[in-house]
Amino acid sequence: MKGSAKVAKGRIKEAAGALSDDDALRAKGRNDQTEGHVKQSAEKNVRHAKVIAHKIVDKAKNVAKDVIQKAQHRD
Fold first, then answer.
1. Model pTM?
2. What is the dihedral of CA 10, 12, 14, 16, to 10 degrees?
3. How many domains does the chain have?
4. Alpha-carbon gap, residue 16 to 46, rounded angstroms
C-alpha cells in the first residue's frame, strides 16, 4: 500500500473511532497515518536517489566518451 493510501485509510479509521468513541480505533488510525507519512517520505527519497543515480551514470558516460575521444586523437 502506498503512503498516501495508508494516510487516507488512517484518517478514516481515526474518524470512525472518534464517531464511535473507540480510543483504540482512533489510535490505530493515527498510527496508520504516521506509517503512511513515513512511507511517503521514503518514496520521495527513493525517487530523489534514482534521479541522482541517473545523473551520476550520465556524467560517467560523458567522461568515458571524452577519454575515448582523447585516446583516439592521440593515435
1. 0.70
2. -150
3. 1
4. 33
For residues 45 and 39, what is the distance between their CA atoms, to the nearest angstrom? 10
For residue 58, the enclosing domain spans 3-74
Contacting residues for 12 by C-beta, under 8 A, at least 6 apart: 29
Alpha-carbon span 51 to 44, nearest angstrom: 11
Going 34 to 37 to 41 to 43, the CA torsion angle's sign is positive
- Contact between 35 and 6 under an 8 Å Cβ cutoff? The reply is yes
Looking at the chain, the whole-number percentage of residues with pLDDT higher than 70 is 97
**How far is residue 38's CA from residue 6's CA, in Å, rounded to a whole number?**
10
Q: What percent of the chain has pLDDT over 90?
A: 92
Q: Secondary structure of 51-73 in the HEC alphabet?
A: HHHHHHHHHHHHHHHHHHHHHHH
